[in-house]
């Protein structure tokens, strides 16, 4: 009886011992040059799964989510991908959203949330500063506490300092735009 139980349950034991849960497919990735997903080099085209970390070395990558959102990562960029959310850790990306996809883009400690059916922006993260230049539609920029720092429309560009999660809603004295990192940048 014990042998029967062990033989019948062998696939369950093998599956449990791998310790990895199946990942959901987010969409596709197309790359040129040197691009890695985790520790593996990316072929020219492939499927991108939830939890993957994409690093563009001397290359670039185009990630297209199933719902139509699109992210273009330039050379020397690093980003993490999850359903309805992506996190830029360093580098330059172009984001393109489509109506009703609910995608959130995280840059440093900030969230970029599309406020129009279509939104396109170029985003750079360097030295804990995020530069956001909107080319189509409107994006809301939100700090870690949920406070909206800006609503950027097509043609607007801004530079944001990294904002700590414990930052109070209203700084004591001074210009709140400078204290919260909302300085303007000329495009």
Explain this structure to me?
The chain is mainly β. The chain is built from two helices and 15 strands. It has helices at 2-18, 176-179; strands at residues 25-37, 40-41, 45-49, 53-65, 70-73, 77-82, 85-97, 104-107, 110-114, 119-126, 129-136, 138-142, 148-153, 157-161, 183-184. The chain has a 15-stranded mixed beta sheet that branches. Strand 12 (138-142) and strand 13 form a beta hairpin.
Number of strand elements: 15
- Which bin fits the share of residues in helices? 10-25%
Instruction: Determine the number of helices (DSSP H or I, runs of at least 4 residues).
Output: 2
Low-confidence runs: 1-21, 166-187
**Mean pLDDT, all residues:** 79
Secondary-structure content class: mainly beta
CA radius of gyration: 20 Å
Series of H and E elements = HEEEEEEEEEEEEEEHE
Which percent band covers the strand fraction? over 45%
Q: Largest sheet, if any?
A: 15 strands, mixed
- What gross morphology would you assign? globular
Distance between the termini: 75 Å
List keywords for this structure.
mainly beta, disordered N terminus, 15-stranded mixed beta sheet, single chain, 2 helices, disordered C terminus
Please sum up the structure shown:
The chain has 187 residues and is mainly beta.
């Amino acid at each position: 009886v014990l042998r029967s139980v062990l033989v019948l349950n062998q696939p369950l034991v093998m599956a449990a011992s791998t310790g990895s849960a199946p990942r959901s497919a987010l969409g596709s990735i197309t790359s040129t040059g040197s691009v890695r997903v985790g520790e593996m080099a990316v072929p020219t085209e492939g499927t991108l799964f939830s939890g993957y970390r994409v690093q563009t070395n001397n290359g670039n990558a185009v990630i297209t989510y199933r719902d139509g959102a699109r992210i273009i990562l330039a050379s020397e960029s690093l980003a993490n991908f999850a359903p309805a959310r992506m996190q830029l850790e360093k580098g330059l990306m172009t984001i393109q959203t489509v109506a009703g996809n609910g995608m959130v883009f995280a840059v440093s400690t900030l969230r970029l949330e599309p406020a129009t059916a279509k939104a396109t922006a170029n985003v750079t993260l360097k030295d804990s500063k995020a530069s956001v230049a909107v080319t189509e539609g409107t994006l809301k920029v939100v700090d870690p506490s949920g406070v909206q720092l800006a609503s950027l429309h097509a043609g607007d560009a801004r530079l944001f300092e990294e904002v700590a999660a414990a930052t109070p809603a209203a700084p004591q004295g001074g210009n709140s735009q400078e204290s919260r990192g909302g300085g303007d940048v000329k495009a």
